[in-house]
Amino acid sequence: MPVQQIASLDEAAVLQLHQLYQREWWSQGRSLDETRSILQNSSLVFGFVEEDGTLVAFARVLTDFTAHAVIYDVIVAESHRRHGLGRQLMDAIVSHPRLTDVRAVWLCCLGDMVPFYRKWDFEPGDEKLQWMIRPRQTSDMEST
């Protein structure tokens, strides 16, 4: 199944990404407007499409291009998993010329995905550091 890498999404691909988001536990419930905002505000976008333009893999990066980069939303369509597409996606990210000099590239994953990401020299974080989250509060939503 030949695929082509893309660095931006047209409207059809945005709609397809939104559908991919709805199938993952960590991105379910994102609105189409949120999907568009996420794309607009990402530093780099990585996608793979089939010859007919169907989006089958996606990831994005937020970065200052110097000290830190964070990889988000690594998704491969279920029908295309276990065919090396996730590997192609990660290869594209870690070899991107604007990321090669970034001091630290971060990502967050479930424990069962650690062996997959170790192939690109990702290691579990320093126990002194911990990812922290501040979910949007109801009061935050009311003030916007």
Automatic annotation (TrEMBL):
- Give the keywords, sorted: Transferase
Q: Where is the N-acetyltransferase domain?
A: 4-137
What is an example of a Pfam family matching this protein? Acetyltransf_1
Annotated PANTHER family: FAMILY N-ACETYLTRANSFERASE, PUTATIVE (AFU_ORTHOLOGUE AFUA_6G03350)-RELATED
Q: What is this protein called?
A: Acetyltransferase (GNAT) family protein
Q: Which SUPFAM superfamilies match?
A: Acyl-CoA N-acyltransferases (Nat)
An MF annotation (GO) of this entry: acyltransferase activity, transferring groups other than amino-acyl groups
